Amino acid sequence: MAEGFKLDQKHGKGRVRVSRVWRKVAGAGGGDVIVEWSVSVSLASDCHPAYTADDNSAIVATDTMKNTVYAKAKECSEVVSMESFAVLLARHFTAFYPQVTAATVNIVEKPWERVVVDGQPHSHGFKLGSEKHTTEVTVSKLGALSITSGVQELALLKTTKSGFEGFVRDRYTLLPETRERMVATEVTAFWRYPFEHVSDIPAKPFCFTERYEGVKKVLVDTFFGPPDVGVYSPSVQNTLFLMAKAVLNRFLDIASIQLRMPNLHFLPVNLSSKENPDMVKFADDVYMPIAEPHGTIEATLSRTMSKM
Ligand SMILES: O=c1[nH]c(=O)c2[nH]c(=O)[nH]c2[nH]1
């Protein structure tokens, strides 16, 4: 670029909220299927004159991107996974506009779940669940692909089988060592699939949805351990590592996983005073949950070449 500068730029539309209903779906026992997505589109395109001069002739309007989300949702006559929808949208933007070199699509799904009434799945009734499924897909003009999926706000808590000992002690350290504490977290995870080109994506339409449910189950089961005895956690760090490792061991089509696990503290309440030494003596029973500050623990686990 002239003037001795390099300009990197992209533009898009954030948080386009779209809901798609498919009626009387055979694969859903004849019931309706609904999804609610918040879709963000970001395009890398050759449109420098819009920045450097009064020339918008190469700009795809972000309003057009928003309309495209609705148009493509309408065109999906069959139920699609959000990963497949993100790929379809990103491919559209790179194929339809000559100046678009790459498209990134992020989707966060609102967790509507079919209600079960007297043991029977309702044909058209849904209630809001908790954790959210996410995806990020980038497609280049030549079809190079990067695809990650994730989960957000997966809140987990154990009342016992957690401790923290043997950490650095110095003159700033007040935290007592313990083998008995509560542990609570809100897991955010992102995992990367190994597909590097749009042609590598499996044909099976719901493989990503299936994988999402599978990863969630492995994360949760590893966090808690067996229902009767649980599993001792010596630190959030160790539990995070075991969760990530379990996912990579279970699913060979996941190349890496990033986990963020805030340590949401439950502080022991101990109200004894000199006058009332036994008024409220903490006996692993009364806690003060606090939102902040909280520990922040995060790591990414990838396969090394030798394991592939
Ligand atoms: O599992 C933990 N990891 C830490 O790094 C840490 N730090 C802390 O104060 N409590 C804890 N707990």
UniProtKB/TrEMBL annotation:
Binding positions (O2): T62, N263
Gene Ontology terms for molecular function: urate oxidase activity
UniProt-annotated catalytic positions: K13 (charge relay system), T62 (charge relay system), H265 (charge relay system)
One GO BP: purine nucleobase catabolic process
Residues reported in the UniProt entry to bind urate: T62, D63, F164, R181, V236, Q237, N263
UniProt KW Signal keyword: no
Gene Ontology, cellular component aspect: peroxisome
Domain of life: Eukaryota
Pathway as given in its UniProt record: Purine metabolism; urate degradation; (S)-allantoin from urate: step 1/3
Family statement drawn from the similarity comment of this UniProt entry: Belongs to the uricase family.
Free-text function comment from the UniProt entry: Catalyzes the oxidation of uric acid to 5-hydroxyisourate, which is further processed to form (S)-allantoin.
Protein name: Uricase
